[in-house]
Amino acid sequence: MSSTLLKLLVTRLAQGLLIMLLVSAVIFTLLRVVPGDPVRLIVGGMADDQVREELSQELGLTDPIPVQYATYLVNVFHGDLGTSFVRPSRSVEEDLDNPEDIVRGERASVTRLILERLPLSLGLTAAALLIALVISVPLGLFAGLHPGRWPDKLSFYIGSLFVSIPNFWLGLVLILLVSVKLDWLPAIGYQGMVYAILPAIVLAVEVSPVIMRTTSVAMAETMQQKFIDYGYVRGLSRSRVVLGHGLRNASVPLLNVLGIQASTLLGGVVVVEYVFNYPGLGLLTIDAVLQRDFPVLQGIALFLAGIFVLLNIVVDILATLIDPRLEN
What are phi and psi of 132, to 5 degrees? Predict the structure, then answer.
């Protein structure tokens, strides 16, 4: 690894740690200042004040917010994201109905909850990106090679159509048509990756316009550069010029967009997972919001921020390797 890449890596890691610190501080504070008492949800509205006070002390909610946050940071740096307020350790999928059974030793680890759901969301995100690439890259390349002509207009119209479709509406339509009427694919729950196909299509439609437009613009600009003309002068075929020179240089902005879209997808699967009852991080987030489960929400936010930082570091390094001019 060159000194430039090493410097880039160190800089990005420092920036990433700062971003994660800011995210954790904002989420931690907002969860505690917005209306809603998690203790009341746990013990019920009929519980007396003493029971609520004891549980509040046990959960660490009676200390001032700065003290709570300092304690939380110390635990995070020791690899402990805390335990759920309401989920028992004996089963991730089972919600605890009896508040008296919630004791410190029986609460589920936030890290375990996230790690059990994370592969499902990552698989859904990867499938959505793959579908989006299959749709967007060929259309974008074709449009970029024929700017202002019908392939460019076709790409623009398809992208405009995809942008205008709400993801929750498309999800419901696909469930009714593909799953209920035609019985081609399952739609609700998860019993294998086949259950991820329909939600992945919904997410792919959501991100395809950005990838398509980026590809077409980058390809059109690249094909106007002087080194493209030099390739023809050297006697290279059009396919070799397009694939070997044009596509390689156009891939840098596309790579940056893919990194952003992957992070966006992973953080934006909440609605889609809720519509399809897909048991990933999105559904876990909704459950945690409804239950005011602070540790789970904090852990998810921190995990997503970390993935966002990691993806951006990987994208920066890959872009530098593809185009060494970016090192300067």
Answer: -65, -40
- How crowded is the C-beta side of 235, counted as CA atoms within 13 Å? 0
Helix, strand, or coil (residue 107): strand
Q: Write out pLDDT tens, residues 159-169.
A: 888 888 888 88
CA-to-CA distance for 37 and 297, rounded, in angstroms?
15
- Give the tens place of pLDDT for each residue, 125-148: 888 889 988 988 888 888 888 887
Parallel, antiparallel or unpaired: strands 83-88 and 107-109: antiparallel
In b/e form, how buried is each residue of 81-112, taking b as 16+ CB within 10 angstroms? bbbbbbbbeeebeeebeeeeebeeeebbbbee
Tokens of 10: 């160190």
DSSP per residue, 232-293: HHTT--HHHIIIIIIHHHHHHHHHHHHHHHHHHHHHS-HHHHHHHT-TTHHHHHHHHHHHT-
CA–CA separation, 145 and 290 (whole Å): 49
pLDDT, one tens digit per residue, over 236-255 is 666 666 666 666 677 777 77
Structure tokens at 300: 């998810």
